[in-house]
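FAQ
Q: What does a multi-component entry look like?
A: The components come first, one per line:
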Amino acid sequence: MLSERVLAPADLQDPATFSQGIPQEAFAEMRLRPTLSWTPPSGGDRTGFWSVTRHAPVSEVSRDTDLYSSAVGHIQIYDIDEDALSARASMIDLDPPVHTRLRRLVSSAFTPRHVQSYETAVRARIARRLDALVQAGGGNWVEAVAAPIPIGVICDIMGVPESDHDYMIELTDHLVAGTSSKPLEPTAYGNTTDLRLLPFNSPAAHGINEYARALGERRRAEPADDLITKLIEAEVDGERLTDAEFTNFFRLMVFAGNETTRASMAHLALHLVEFADQFERLRSDPSLMDRAVEEVIRYSSPILYFRRTLTRDTVLQDTPLRTGDKVVMWYAAANFDEEVFDEPMRFDVTRPLRPPNVAFGGGGAHFCLGAPLARLEVAILIESILSRGINLRLAGDPVYVDSNFVNGIEHLEVEVG
Amino acid sequence: MSAELVRVAVDSERCIGGGQCEMLEPEIFLLDEDEVISSVIGSGALSRPRADVVVHRCPGAAVSIVEPQRPSE
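Then the predicted structure of the entire assembly, as tokens:
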């Protein structure tokens, strides 16, 4: 049986495979194969996994939460023990109906209607950062623009005071670094928890949990109009969230609302330089904005993958799968599926909105909660750059985040003219 | 047959309150801000192509098309 499996042509477990961004050649080869590709066990992956790289099966896996579970096993490739799974579980690690009940606690803050109310604040944040960058004549685009904007926006919604935003950036940076080749000391941020039990095996997760707990205490004494207060006061099936449910929720929101939009905004700088003609086109026809935003997000594909685990035997893309098998949805591969996107490597602000890209997920219960917010933030950033006539030039090569999970950029030196 | 009308329905168990349906078809869907569940308002009837867009866009896969009933049923 093993001999019939077609092996993935690159080491998808190794962050180095993603050190120049999306491994387009390997993914292109995998998409052309009639079956899914197999990666044998290595490192923290005890069983091996199947890679899904085409658009249609990514959507199929995303939408069928009964068959492809987020609660059984981990949602990242490496395996963790049962106690570690339950210690770190947030709604992203659960299946309906439990997932649905938790998600509804926060979803009203992220509906398209509600997100409109954040526009003025988002615009002001972006203006401040862009104006500072222009005044300085350039700098590290990630530190100056891409990182502070999304964390500022999500922290405002959560209720984290402005004075703590930099600390949140620092902690979430270290979170992804937990699974990289340069992890923090286990005792960083006063961590006393077994790393095994922490998300990304990172002591920064302990730091975030401690911060959330303290802020929660403050809001319990003095409620405010923010998500922290809402989570503190929320009841699910007549019960308050437990301490772990609350801190895990907070950590998920800060990570997901930050790291992802930050990656899109970082990549946007590359797009602006490399595809300047496309942005000229957008400038002359602002009605293309929705499409341009979607194209930036497709081309960036900030989250490279999520994993699911089979609850029954099935067949997917002519590949027999067994209960307990792991399937990895490579969104970054499906977003360049030539069956779905005409000339996928072309960056095209006129690309139709349908079929949709899967950067926010392939649909179904776990579809990105913050998608409307991310779209708003990216749209306002593009609009603000164009209206100021900001001309970016690259002053160095992008340094990618050391991760096979987030397609992030850590450092990108730019000059502004 | 592009003018064919179909009825749509929301499965409240699956609805994750994404609000896409209300944004696309505000006269057909209403997102309850407290319960964070969408429901169909009014006739719930719209053209098949527009219904298809909502079905496809619904992040929770909660919107479905109710096929027209046969007269004999």
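Q: Is there any commentary attached?
A: Sometimes. For this entry: Chain B touches chain A through 23 residues (CB under 8 Å).
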